[in-house]
Amino acid sequence: MKSWKHYLGLTVVSSALLLGACGSDAEDDAATEDEATEEQAAESDTASESADQSSEEAVEGQVSGDGSSTVAPVMEALVEEYAATGTDVQVTVGVSGTGGGMEKFIAGETDFSNASREIKDEEKQKLEEAGVDYTEFLLAYDGLTVVVNPENDWATELTVEDLKKIWVEDGTTKKWSDINPEWPEEEIVFYSPGTDSGTYDYFNEVILEEEDMVQDATLSEDDNVLVQGVQGDKNAIGFFGYSYYVANQDTITAVAIDGVEPSNETIESGEYSPLSRPLYTYVSNESLENDAATYDFFEFALDNAGAMAEAVGYVSLPQEVSDEQKAKLEEFKN
């Protein structure tokens, strides 16, 4: 196929023959070159203006958060995906537990605080006294998962009442046979999230009903420590967020509670009760209103929370709930 330049050439030659103007080709070429130069200059100016405008609109800055180790997998995935977009915003997230994160949030050290439970009344009061206004956002759903060692083939199904007998301090050395006489007369080895953890608080509320936990439990804010503890002892029992079970399901066994195993379906439906729970992040209103970097990150986070939750082993929010979270954020858009 002949190019548009070929046909333009024929047109110029024909015009020259008809008009008998020997110098017209050179004049036309010069005019064409002048027009092209002007167009290129205009395009260059437009590109420069666009680059300047883009540079002026580019968001940059630093955003910091802390809090729940249970929320950490989904939040860290969001931070990693956000960084991959090429943003100039740097987001850092610590993992000191829900309570520890709230302490930093109250002190004004962070822009947001991740939590695996709802904010406590005393935390609300401290935030009010510190002059920190905040907004609560739901990120995903979790099923607090009770696990045992794969060699444990006797306690793969427990009731809520069994869990309470196992975990409540009663002044005795707990053995499996204390729960069921047919089970081994072996001492139970306990692994639990630390007292700053929202997972600890949630378990304490719905299982222990505010009674004291066994004193000889190994406590850690790092859920990976709990996973490793259960992996290494056939008499061990522990609990943590569903994501940590999914990541290690080949080496630990999830316990069915009242006949229901934790899964995406049972967690989302609420059938896995009472251990299904929402995961939150609490964000400073001041940061959302006055810091474009914080708003930009959370706009990305709420748009992608569902996909990241599923990717790390949690359960995404129903669409209508997700839309509600985005609507809350849009109230801060400038």
TrEMBL record:
Q: Where is this region: Disordered?
A: 25-69
List GO BP terms, alphabetically. Answer: phosphate ion transport
- Per the record, the major location class is membrane
In which residue ranges is the amino acid composition biased (Low complexity)? 43-53
State the Gene Ontology terms under molecular function.
phosphate ion binding
Q: What's an example GO cellular component term for this entry?
A: plasma membrane
Keyword line: Cell membrane, Lipoprotein, Membrane, Palmitate, Phosphate transport, Signal, Transport
| Signal peptide boundaries | 1-26
> Biased composition, Acidic residues: where in the chain?
25-42
Q: Which InterPro entries does the record match to this protein?
A: PBP_domain, Phos-bd, Phosphate_ABC_transporter
Q: What compartments host this protein?
A: Cell membrane
In this chain the PBP domain maps to 53-302
Q: What is the membrane topology listed in the Swiss-Prot or TrEMBL record? A: Lipid-anchor
Source taxon at top rank: Bacteria
Q: Which NCBIfam families match?
A: ptsS_2
Assembly and binders? The complex is composed of two ATP-binding proteins (PstB), two transmembrane proteins (PstC and PstA) and a solute-binding protein (PstS).
Its biological purpose is as follows: Involved in the system for phosphate transport across the cytoplasmic membrane. Part of the ABC transporter complex PstSACB involved in phosphate import.
Q: Which family does it belong to?
A: Belongs to the PstS family.
Classification via PANTHER family: PERIPLASMIC PHOSPHATE BINDING COMPONENT OF PHOSPHATE ABC TRANSPORTER (PTHR30570), PHOSPHATE-BINDING PROTEIN PSTS (PTHR30570:SF1)
Q: What is this protein called?
A: Phosphate-binding protein
Q: Which organism is it from?
A: Bhargavaea cecembensis
**In the record, what lineage is assigned to the organism producing the protein?**
Bacteria, Bacillati, Bacillota, Bacilli, Bacillales
